[in-house]
Amino acid sequence: xxxxxxxxxxxxxxxxxxxxxxxxxxxxxxxxxxxxxxxxxxxxxxxxxxxxxxxxxxxxxxxxxxxxxxxxxxxxxxxxxxxxxxxxxxxxxxxxxxxxxxxxxxxxxxxxxxxxxxxxxxxxxxxxxxxxxxxxxxxxxxxxxxxxxxxxxxxxxxxxxxxxxxxxxxxxxxxxxxxxxxxxxxxxxxxxxxxxxxxxxxxxxxxxxxxxxxxxxxxxxxxxxxxxxxxxxxxxxxxxxxxxxxxxxxxxxxxxxxxxxxxxxxxxxxxxxxxxxxxxxxxxxxxxxxxxxxxxxxxxxxxxxxxxxxxxxxxxxxxxxxxxxxxxxxxxxxxxxxxxxxxxxxxxxxxxxxxxxxxxxxxxxxxxxxxxxxxxxxxxxxxxxxxxxxxxxxxxxxxxxxxxxxxxxxxxxxxxxxxxxxxxxxxxxxxxxxxxxxxxxxxxxxxxxxxx
Length: 452
Ligand SMILES: *Cc1c(COP(=O)(O)O)cnc(C)c1O
Known about the structure:
With 452 residues, this protein is an alpha/beta fold.
């Protein structure tokens, strides 16, 4: 019988990350310098990123060695367990077999430390003393703060002001690991001061916080910037999730028919899916599903085109699915899934039909979270609950058809800091929200015009 938890030994942690850029049927379009609109050069990035990460960003090598210093920190919680969701299967009365990879066991409670540790390491060996970053809901800020404390780096986190006040315990966690948290917009940067001058009561946004962190990093010699999702090197580091899952499934002679993950910037989706997409590109029949909220439907209703990563247009232009850089999603409870754009790698794979996207409403997502909590016992992050809903939908299709598919989904994090969301759900305060077509058209009308 297949056990409830399929575990690997510490020495079985993969020693290399998988880079899907080596295997893309259609290579990525180059990112562009926001001023000149010419393809980005390594020099353009060197003011805010260390050279090893810039080289990984553009690498087409299939396998990239994980440094020993990074592996030794991964050992604090990796390999993460792969669970067979026997109790959930029983609750659903489905013939499908459901597996989930539990990234909630990391010290920060999500998959984000997989890249935070690597990014802190490469900055450290490049002589950098301090990192600046932004955080919305606080997941990325806590992961980077953990990483900086382990490598002895200073860290400043610009935290969107509304979350700074609404999510005090994520802030406490960031500060406990030793980072400095600044509510954004702040009076510490030109971008922050400009916003405050126009609107002294601004509660901030991810776009503003990115502008503040990038400005901080670009104007200080000892400081670099770190991003928690979207970029190629971030998805590279996250491939450890899928590589471990593949080894764990092989241990019990299993292979997934369907892979499901939630998708905000694309890092946990890419992390679990890319090592399996390697097989799909080479002919294997697998269904790969990225799940997003219908209130921020980037992959399902956005356009595949060049766009900026932030509102202030400081970041490079990337070819991706986007709802427009000034798209502001409504305030729903999955802070990690509110980005207007998506990873260029994930976008290209969706464009090429190697992966598909589904948009789900928040009430159905929370129903799934409740069923999961009450059967498997783990309280999921609202982001991860999108993957749970996606997996449950496939399992219910199997119940209809009688098929015994093997489903693998990524549990990207636990929801212990998201209990306000659960309170609201239990109090009946949550509603569904479909983004109006008009509003999407409006923000798409502001897409940059690129002449290539
Ligand atoms: C940040 C976050 C996400 C969304 O980011 P991706 O880059 O799309 O993975 C999903 N789940 C959790 C728990 C997160 O912290």
